Amino acid sequence: MPARSKPTVYAALLRGINLGARNRLPMADLRGLVEDLGCTDVSTYVQSGNVVLRSDRRAPELAKAIEEGIRKSAGLDVPAVVRTAQQVRRLVDRNPFAGPKAAPNELHVTFLVEKPARERVRRLAERSFEPERFEIVGTDVYLSCPDGYGRSKLTNAMFERQLGVAATTRNWRTVCALAELAAAVG
């Protein structure tokens, strides 16, 4: 019998959790829910639905289980985006907008639930949002927003509408922190 492989370390990002009075979900409840799904080494980062964990499940199965668990326990319909620790690390290492002149508060990543249709990506890539810039790489969108994300036209809702897939956006500090947390678990 082949040896069982070590469970995978993931970062799960929930869309729209704890924004103002909407979709309230205490992080202790979220940790408990994820642990009840059989995940281990569960930790959360800030209050906006970021979880690092270890699981035997594949990413799509894990995302679906988290979404269903939240629906059953909290009555919330919240998309979950799941990336492996390696995917998050690669994402950090390959940011085309990061560098010595980039201010971390200008950088964000929009995580897409699935890869968008090529035609939608092509049509969006033809548009200009200067001075803001974006680059779509598979299921992730790198953002550079020199005037801040709060004033940006490159919103999560715009990407969902234009690309036809659910998404959630995180600032660069959160993305880097999740990569570090995932590395510590791994």
- The CATH level-2 architecture of the largest domain is identified as 2-Layer Sandwich
Number of helices: 6
Please compute the radius of gyration using only Cα atoms.
17 Å
Beta fraction of the residues?
15-25%
Low-confidence stretches: none
Question: What is this entry, summarized?
Answer:
By secondary structure, the chain is an alpha+beta fold. The protein has 6 helices and 8 strands, in the order βαββαβαβαββαβα. The longest helix is centred in the middle third of the chain and has 16 residues, at about 60-75.
How would you describe the overall organization of this protein?
With 186 residues, the protein is an alpha+beta fold. It folds into 2 domains: 8-87, SP0830-like domains (Alpha-Beta Plaits), CATH 3.30.70.1280; 91-172, Alpha-Beta Plaits, CATH 3.30.70. The chain has 6 helices and 8 strands; from the N terminus they run E-H-E-E-H-E-H-E-H-E-E-H-E-H. The protein has helices at residues 27-36, 59-74, 85-93, 118-125, 156-163, 172-185, and strands at residues 8-14, 40-45, 50-55, 80-84, 107-112, 133-137, 140-144, 167-171. The strands form 2 sheets. A 4-stranded antiparallel sheet has the order 2-3-1-4, with helices on both faces. Strands 6-7-5-8 form a 4-stranded antiparallel sheet. The radius of gyration is 17 Å and the shape is globular. The relative contact order is 0.19.
